[in-house]
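Predict structure. Chain length: 363.
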Amino acid sequence: MARSRHNPLADAHHGYAYQDAATAFVFLWALYEGADGVVADSKAYPGDLFDDITIRIDGRVLRRQYKWAADAATTFSEEHLRTTKSDLRIDHLVRAFHLADGHPADEYRICATWKSPTDPAVTQLLEPSDAPGSFGAWPTKRWKLRAEVWWPVSGELIWALRKPFAMRREQVVALVDRLVIELECPEISRDQASPGPLERLIYEFLAERIGVGRYPNRDRSVEDVAERLIRRASQARAAQETVVPAELLPALGLRTDFGRVAQQFPVIAAEEVRRADALALLQDMVRRERFVLVIGSPGSGKSWLLTEFAEAVADDGVLVAKHYCYLQPGDQHREQRITADVLFANLMAELVLQRWAQLPTCR
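Prediction complete.
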């Protein structure tokens, strides 16, 4: 029977494509969760085997290594841990972990498209892990190694390794406590016309959590933004770059100002009539009432009074959001101002910017 043959160069290219797509998803997750930074494809030290992705979040360090198989039926097996076929031989992993020289990551994770094993000889080496999945709601299978099975407390390692690195059982246990093996990770198709599960997860994340396709990024398609994001991941991999997640959205050409429009009410200081009594009355009513309406005929000074009020209470540390439906004749955004999109965009942007301005400055 003829055997199918894989092109090693094509396989390597697909493997990099998978790494870039997985990195793109990590970028989105890191942005949404507020991570400090993501380092792409960079070894922390010679011999580092978990170099595909390093995530820094909430004072923790998470390391990821991605494994893609040309054969979709590939199943995790004992061979992955006792041979060098996938660069995961157990003594190599232990050595890489301890080369961190007292500064290990909080978690090491192998993310693979391989199927979960069903052979009892292999499943006995594993136990379920309660670690969250790396791909949102995608149902990956997370496992931990059971060191007591393949290295009994009072025995020796059950595998005879070829030219092994020296290691002690306590070193193995230290790694196992931080190691997650995540199997059945989503695949890619590299075809926009028929996207694979991982591409669809990126599209969903962009649409549902980032807001691509909705105001103010209504004119952007998730497919276009996803392609640019994956290309950005590829660039980061090639440059072994540290990416700050908060800087991704502008780099992808997405608006991050909620879609607000400029609004500086033209108070003419030389002509303004200060109405201290009206301002004091308004401040008192706002403290007592849930809603306050200021009603008056056109040109009676409502906007000037409310602008003065907003500035006064903001100076007292109150969060203020304001939106003007009309500024002056010739206002280029006059038609936009009366839409709900711009109304809420301006209110949200005002609140966010003022909140940031009130935070203490780090010194």
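Summary: The chain has two domains: 8-251, 276-358.
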